Amino acid sequence: MAASAGAAALGRSSRAALPPWTLRVPRADRGRLLIPASLGGRAPAALAASNQPSAGGEERYCLDLLRKRDYEGFLCALLLPAESRASVLALRAFNVELAQIRDSVTEKTIGLMRIEFWRKAVEDIYQDNPPQQPVAIELWKAVRRQNLTKRWFMNIIDQREKNLDDRAYRDISELETYAENTQSSLLYLTLETLGRCTLDSSGTCHVGGCTNAGSL
């Protein structure tokens, strides 16, 4: 009995004397020899990772922008394969950035300046020199990953510029042109991230037109 009590007391005292960093070790890392950083040691990978700044701030920015401004696009992007999801988030965020210019400025000149920023941003992206703006950086990553077609970006930008005047469409032909250069171009880019864009794009064009008409 006395021996058992002594062993138990010894166990309690040895646990109490353990260095504090060993008390916070994840179960998977228990049993390893841990040396404090002050003595030149290194914490387990799980602990080291928890102390690093979180990565993917640009992607988070795109995600939050879509959640606030394009909730349907946000939900659809979440259903895509992982290898395409980040690229589509960037594409949809790019579309939101352009679409909200007209409603956020009181002078057309300011709107034109913002449009010109995105036109130059796309040019710089294809020169591997994106501006330090979250959406632009994510677009650059998408272009590098999936070799996206520059023409579709420019179609969207040019059409958004023409639409700054905020006037009614004169006929159905104008509406179709707007839809093809905005929604259809966005769909072409989305298909490219999935490796599904082909020369037979008439169906995508019609879907883009219907999507735009339904949003009016």
The outline comes out as globular
Give the beta-strand count: 0
- List unreliable stretches of 5+ residues: 9-55, 203-216
Instruction: Please count the helical segments.
Output: 11
CATH superfamily of the domain at 56-199: Farnesyl Diphosphate Synthase
What Rg, in angstroms, do the CA atoms define? 27 Å
Average the pLDDT over all residues and give the rounded result: 76
**Main sheet?**
none
Task: Estimate percent helicity.
Answer: 55-70%
Examine the coordinates and then state which fold CATH places here, giving the name of the CATH topology of the domain at 56-199: Farnesyl Diphosphate Synthase
Which CATH class of the domain at 56-199 is shown?
Answer: Mainly Alpha
SSE string, helix = H, strand = E?
HHHHHHHHHHH
* Ends apart, CA distance between termini: 85 Å
Which structural class fits the helix and strand makeup?
A: mainly alpha
Strand content: under 5%
CATH architecture of the domain at 56-199: Orthogonal Bundle
